[in-house]
Specification:
The protein is mainly alpha-helical. It has 2 domains: 42 residues; 69 residues. Helix 5 packs across helix 6, helix 5 crosses helix 7 and helix 6 crosses helix 7. The chain starts with 5 loop residues before the first helix and ends with a helix. It has 7 helices and no strands.
Length: 131
């Protein structure tokens, strides 16, 4: 395989539109072996700071959960918080992971999502109390 300087490859990719860049990268990655893909993913991940890694992990993991399943989890968490507001987001996230059989690696995402749901329920209850 011919070696290409990384700068010239980046310049080439940047000359395309964002949509075309995604298609090009997708096509290249699908032609690589699994070990080569894993190596590339590791290099990409290690190039980010810890906060950027967390942010990208949440983006990737939320896209892996199907939208319909995510809505079910969201609705279920809301009902739990409406009935038992004193529950912590951690507890509700763990309950949701057990109920929906979600992989334990998704725990940080589920806790963050439970926090958002509890905040949404808090504001809804606050508005009801004002009226």
């Amino acid at each position: 395989m011919q070696q290409i300087k990384s700068d010239s490859l980046i310049d080439l990719l940047l000359s395309f539109s964002k949509k075309n860049r995604v298609y090009i990268l997708k096509g290249v990655l699908t032609q690589l072996s699994e070990s080569e893909r894993v190596s590339i993913y590791k290099k990409i991940v290690h190039s980010f700071s810890n906060s950027e890694r967390r942010k990208h992990f949440q983006i990737i993991s939320s896209s892996l959960i199907s939208r319909t399943r995510w809505r079910h989890v969201d609705k279920w968490m809301e009902s739990v918080f409406m009935n038992h507001y004193e529950y912590t987001p951690y507890k509700v996230a763990m309950m949701a992971m057990n109920y929906y059989r979600i992989n334990r690696k998704m725990k940080p995402l589920m806790i963050a999502h439970a926090r958002k749901v509890k905040k949404r329920v808090y504001y809804r209850l606050k508005v009801k109390a004002v009226k």
